[in-house]
Amino acid sequence: TKKKSTKQRVLMLTESAAMIAIASVLSVVKIVDMPFGGSVTACSMLPLLIIGYRYGVSWGLLTSFTYGVIQMFLGLDNLAYATSAWAAIAIIVLDYFLAFVVLGLSGITRKITKNQTAALSIAAVATGLLRYVCHVISGCTVWAGMALPTKDALIYSISYNFAYMLPEIV
User: Which residue from 85, 57, 63 is spatially nearest to 12, judged by alpha carbons?
Assistant: First the structure.
């Protein structure tokens, strides 16, 4: 691989910081705010998908991880739903770190098609579905320990997370 110049690295850092900031602002523009966490935002995933597409998977994962940390701090009140230490860990790892890190995988779509619009559309669907899976698993962990019986926790989590993730992906 070709080593990047200092100018290229500064450009990558600057663009990534700007896109993280834009994504963070868009994440608080909530079109629908769900009662137990999750929301439909004003395209808050898009800036991260663009960074992954532009600079590749490794850089996209790092940028998305950074965004996930910021989202965790913005959403710390969601830890109130945790009924145990394990549930709190599941919320942090699955709802913040993994759920947002997967957005960095958008760089893979660059190899699928050279059409930027098609690649970003594929990335939105694929990474959105991976993010949805993370939220469903987290929901099962959290809700299984609360009022819902364990066997119903999966059904509830699938339905609840689908209600906001489908519009978010679209």
Answer: 63
SS3 at position 33 = strand
Q: Encoding tokens for residue 73?
A: 């701090």
Nearest to 128 by CA among 49, 59, 53: 49
119, 123, 120, 143: which is closest to 38 by C-alpha?
A: 143
Question: What's the rounded Cα separation, in Å, for the pair 131 and 110?
Answer: 19
pTM listed for this prediction: 0.89
Distance CA 49, CA 38 (A): 19
Locate 170 and state its tokens.
């679209």
Report the half-sphere exposure of 18 (CA within 13 A, side-chain side): 8
pLDDT digits 0-9 by tens, 11-70: 999 999 999 999 999 999 999 999 878 899 999 999 999 999 999 999 999 999 999 999
